[in-house]
Design goal:
By secondary structure, the protein is mostly beta strands. It has 3 domains: 8-109, Immunoglobulins (Immunoglobulin-like), CATH 2.60.40.10; 126-216, Immunoglobulin-like (Sandwich), CATH 2.60.40; 223-308, Immunoglobulins (Immunoglobulin-like). Helix content is 3%, strand content 43%. Strands 1, 2, 4, 5, 7, 8, 11, 14 and 15 form a 9-stranded mixed β-sheet that branches. It has a 4-stranded antiparallel β-sheet with strand order 9-10-13-12. Strand 1 (26-30) and strand 2 form a beta hairpin.
Length: 309
């Protein structure tokens, strides 16, 4: 469906609607889905939204109905419908004989964050990659008080065309993506720009996140193997190769556990935290060893702790 701005003559023909303004900022989300960008959060706020049934029906006596079957008073190929307090709707146009012609779903985009959980400081969407293959995942948490769903996902490179595909996981709270043109051996010059539109009823919220693979890379758990009186700290099987080109730094904590509760690598404060690239660690009696890893060449996230007791 082609959507165009209604001109001065159309506004005059609806002068009886008083001082309610005609929406000026709107865009097409998908075919037959119109998103109005207005501050519709105030009590009693209203805006007029222009709709067109189709270019082929210009000059015809078109009938419009709501999703409930209620017939609108206005007729014609081009009309204005009133949206009140972010309550959009589906409007269907018919011929005078009652034949279906087209429809438009009207949604409202607002600047607030209500559909998924998070904070401006810590973010709403979190992405991670366990190596430099070009695969990455992004996660979010739904707000239990709202029936949310994904309306659209857009992911591009900032300065290149790119070829990134994403699929919604079965859990509906994450996506898995692949940058098909990503080269792990070249410097990553531009950013991935991720935009996800979440919908709850007739409200749309847009979330934008720019990042590079090097920003979000997080190794999987370090493998620990005992050999005689030494622990071998092994790279995760999923980590990029060769290891000499993708080195890891290991963080090692030695903990003496008096109680079972003390044997938590994440919470226990060791007197000394060791950073090393060596993959051999001497084993001491009565000591639990906690190990995690980080990309040695960038300040990205640490892996989860693994331990040997």
């Amino acid at each position: 469906m082609t959507l165009i701005v209604i001109g001065f003559l159309i506004v005059l023909s609806h002068a009886s609607m008083g001082s309610i303004k005609v929406a000026e900022n709107y865009w097409t989300l998908k075919s037959n889905e119109l998103v109005v960008v207005e501050d519709m959060t105030k009590y009693g706020s209203k805006v007029l939204v222009p709709l067109v049934c189709g270019e082929a029906f210009e000059g015809q006596n078109i009938i419009w109905k709501t999703v409930s079957g209620e017939k609108l008073q206005v007729q014609g190929n081009r009309i204005l419908v009133m949206v009140e307090e972010r309550q959009g709707g589906t409007y269907t146009c018919y011929s005078t004989e009652g034949n279906y012609l087209n429809h438009t779903l009207v949604l409202v985009q607002w600047p607030y964050r209500k559909i998924i959980k998070g904070t401006p400081e810590h973010g709403y969407i979190h992405c991670a990659a366990n190596n430099y293959s070009g695969f990455f995942q992004c996660f979010w948490t739904w707000d239990e008080t709202r029936a949310g769903k994904i309306a659209q996902i857009k992911v591009t490179r900032s300065h290149s065309v790119g070829n990134i595909s994403c699929s919604l996981d079965s859990s509906a709270n994450s996506i898995t993506c692949q940058d098909h043109e990503y080269c792990p051996y070249a410097e990553e010059l531009d950013h991935i720009n991720l935009t996800i539109y979440f919908r709850s009823n007739y409200v749309i919220e847009a979330y934008f996140l720019p990042f590079q693979i090097s920003d979000i890379v997080r190794p999987d758990m370090v493998r620990i193997r005992k050999k005689n009186n030494t622990l071998e700290l092994q790279y995760p099987e999923s980590w990029s190769t060769p290891f000499s080109y993708f080195p890891l730094t290991f963080q090692v904590k030695e903990i003496r556990c008096r109680k079972k509760a003390d044997c938590d690598c994440s919470n226990h404060r060791s007197l000394k935290v060791n950073l090393t690239q060596e993959q051999q660690w001497p084993l001491k009696k009565g000591v639990m060893v906690c190990v995690r890893a980080q990309d040695d060449l960038c300040n990205s996230s640490w892996s989860k702790w693994n331990k040997y007791k």
